[in-house]
Design goal:
This protein is mostly helical. It has 13 helices and no strands. Helix 1 crosses helix 11, helix 2 packs across helix 10 and helix 10 packs across helix 11. Helices cover 69% and strands 0% of the residues. It has one domain: ABC transporter involved in vitamin B12 uptake, BtuC.
Length: 314
Amino acid sequence: MDVSLSSFLAAIVVMAAPLVLAALGEALTEKAGVVNLSLDGGILLSAMTGFVVASTSHSLALGFLAAALTGCAVAALLSFIGVWLGQSLVAVGFALTFLCRDLAYFLGNPFARQQGPQLATLPLPFLSDIPFFGKVLFSHSFIVYVSFLAIPCCTYFLYYTRHGLLLRMAGENPEGCWARGINPTAVRMLATMAGGMLVGLGGAAFSLSVKPGWGQPQGCEGIGWIALALVIFGSWHPLRVVAGAYLFGMLQLLGIYFQDFFPAIPAQIFQVAPFPLMIFTLILIHLSSTRQNRIMRLLHGKPPKWLGRAYRRS
């Protein structure tokens, strides 16, 4: 298979776009002290909702909107039970994961294996004509550009705005929020729902762009768990989290190419291989950081102090 470097990098950008959105959404959520373990089920349910709404309404915009609202609704349910009522986030997250997964396959069954709408590529005028970089960065569908914009927007919001400071304070020091007249419980719930909307967009990116269509299996199973791992090993920083997302996209793409290079090996091996390889890579990065390597040490961080803990004002 003859593949140029620009084509290879452009394909990585496309493959990683849904994971970038989902991982950034989880990073926002966990910065506020909430662990959303319903991520995998939420992505599946959002992918199904986006495809069904886009197919029935013949509107891709409505499909993405419905998917974002679905991700927000799942996150709202998690935040209501786990944050507002103070129940175990782990238990609620696992229950929602399986509930959303089964709902997605049950409700989406009538639309399985049907042809539906798909995002077309939208080359940006003038920018797409730039040698090499035009093909890599500026010749994609709309959702890929959204994933690009989400990276600086999330980073700027978290570290350079007052509301981002309050969000991080809710995860680090809820009492500090109360001292400034801000309800940390409300901040946590809003952050969880905002992160859920990004997760929903990531789900729709699968069914309407990267892997268009709906069926069982959909092809995005397990992506939610990878997003959770990326947030942890990426030290809860958006830029490091996104770097891990692109690394996983590269591993997925290599698995596809290797199927053509080694036809005698079952295709299922290449489909599954990126998941253990990604976990192994993240573990190596973590071990290197704990050995005080100057470069890898930059990837080592601490979780928010109130991550996963219920808060009640004393």
